[in-house]
Amino acid sequence: MIDFTIEGGMIRLRPIRHSDVNDSYVSWFNNQSAEFIEFGAERVTLKRLKSYVDEKISDPHVLMLAIVDRSEGRHIGNLKFEPFSPREADCDLGVFIGDTNFLGRGYGSDAIRTALDFLRDMTAVESVSLGVDQRNSRAIAAYSKLGFSQVGIPRRVLGGGGEYVEIRMRVSLEQRRQALTVDLPDFD
């Protein structure tokens, strides 16, 4: 695995490590913040979580990043792009701030913004999509502020927490590229 770090405002992103999978990480899945993620209401054990992370780390079509608080150096959540290839145009995003001390304070938005800027600048990825439970209004508002917009119609899906209605959202990295393009005057 290639080791790298991507610096954000309040966070640092780096590939998730086996050493990140510990009892603290498991505890994230036993609190309210896990309500809207893949594991949902399923019981998560250290053994199961280690197996899941091992699977994602070894999959060449997954980029799973630890979200680390810059001030404390503490692993507070994860971002996952799947399927992912730096040469492909599209990928899906999953995000989870597991440490409840960091919820609602902008850490998730900073992590997503930092990751999108990295993808925009360093890969051929043109758009990023995600699915969000329509009951998760805080996440929908945060994603909208980051440039994501709803695509398609909501649909019923079955997840770890049971059946729910998923809204698909997408952001164009090409529009983010163009927003950075500035025409400079000719000084000749």
Task: Describe the protein.
By secondary structure, the chain is an alpha+beta fold. The chain has a single domain, classed as Gcn5-related N-acetyltransferase (GNAT) (Aminopeptidase). It is built from five helices and eight strands; from the N terminus they run ββααβββαβαββα.
CATH C-level class: Alpha Beta
Uncertain runs are 180-188
Percentage of residues in strands: 25-35%
Q: Note the gap between the termini.
A: 48 Å
Global Rg:
17 Å
Give a summary of the structure in a few sentences.
By secondary structure, this protein is an alpha+beta fold. The protein has helices spanning 23-27, 46-58, 107-122, 137-145, 173-180, and strands at residues 6-7, 11-15, 63-69, 75-81, 90-97, 127-133, 149-159, 162-172.
Quickly list its features:
188 residues; alpha+beta; 8-stranded mixed beta sheet; 8 strands
What layout of secondary structure does this protein have?
Elements: E1 6-7, E2 11-15, H1 23-27, H2 46-58, E3 63-69, E4 75-81, E5 90-97, H3 107-122, E6 127-133, H4 137-145, E7 149-159, E8 162-172, H5 173-180
Parallel strand pairs: 5-6
Antiparallel strand pairs: 1-2, 2-3, 3-4, 4-5, 6-8, 7-8
Helix pairs in contact: 3-5
